[in-house]
Amino acid sequence: MSTGFYLLNGKMVEAQQAAIHPDNRSFRYGEGLFETIRLQNGRIPLWSEHWDRLTNSLPHLYFQLPVHFTEALLQEEIQRLVKRNKCEAAARIRLTLFKGEGGIWEPPSTAFNYLLQCWPLQQQAELNSNGLELGVFEKGRKSCDGFSHIKSNNYLIYALAAQFAKSNHWNECIVLNQYNRVCDTTIANLFFIRDQVIHTPALTEGCVGGVMRSYLLNQWKTAGIKVEEGACSLEELLQAEELFLTNAIHGIRWVKALGDKQFSCGQTARLYESCIRPLFG
Questions:
Q1: Model confidence at 37: pLDDT above 90
Q2: Side-chain half-sphere of 7: how many Cα atoms within 13 Å?
Q3: What are the pLDDT digits (tens) for 133-156?
């Protein structure tokens, strides 16, 4: 649930007030996309990465960015909302972009709408003290195509995987791609460490193009840390020494167990200290 108020096309609306039409195309078809953004001490880490992902994704879904919807406007709207909801110290922001009402062959009533929501976060960001326990979602597969890297509103497989994880008392759940290889998890990209090399599924494996994923890959490559993007099987995960998840809210979270396999977190903790703590500081 939203905290207090949300913003719909610039209008401040009480959280309890419904504002989406039942014929909305995002509700009907999952047409649209969203960004999950961390605000920390009044600023937004990785802002340029969020804006770039947003603007690069829109043409894939046949959106046109209105002239008035600028980078500066969006930042102002975020600041206005967190101030109204009194969570300027630390907040999770969700921006949803969607079209208006209409059938699948009809032009939408409006071509561009935006919805901003926010929730308070614990102000001090820390590496999780208790490692996550993961399972694998076997009932569905993520496709590898020209849309799979987009954080779209069509989120069915991830929503089902999250429910499956909850029913099994796991903290997170691995989603597989159409080739039965590792894709990502319900809300994060996945990395593992083996023989001093950091590995992660490539975008061609169907994973969402996470902004934290992109940031960390650039940081590590610049620092001379060996990183490999490619195909990844479950068997390779089980041979890893460490396993961790990344997203814009938590930065890095370490994984303690996948099934019966146990992982350590020494190298992951050092990566957190060198890359995430300065970013969220």
A1: yes
A2: 24
A3: 999 999 999 999 999 999 999 999
* DSSP per-residue string spanning 137-202: EEEEEE--STTTTS-BS--HHHHHHHHHHHHTT-SEEEEEETTSSEEEESSSEEEEEETTEEEEE-
Longest CA span, the chain = 55
Out of 3.20.10.10, 3.90.226.10, 3.40.50.720, 3.10.105.10, select the CATH number for domain 132-280: 3.20.10.10
Q: Which strand (E) or helix (H) includes residue 107?
A: none
Judge whether 36 and 121 are in contact, CB under 8 Å. no
Task: Tell me the residue ranges of DSSP E strands in the chain.
Answer: 5-8, 11-14, 32-40, 90-98, 113-120, 132-142, 172-177, 182-185, 189-194, 197-201, 227-230, 242-247, 251-258, 261-262
d(C-alpha 31, C-alpha 188), whole Å: 21
Q: DSSP state, 205?
A: G
| Rg, Å, the chain Cα set | 19
The hierarchical CATH code for the domain 5-120 is 3.30.470.10
Whether the Cβ atoms of residue 78 and residue 39 lie closer than 8 Å to each other: yes
* Cβ atoms within 10 Å, residue 224: 6
Residues 6+ apart with CB under 8 A from 200: 189, 190, 191, 192, 213, 217, 227, 228, 229, 232
Given this model, what pLDDT does residue 2 score? 53
- Break the chain into its structural domains and give their ranges: 5-120, 132-280
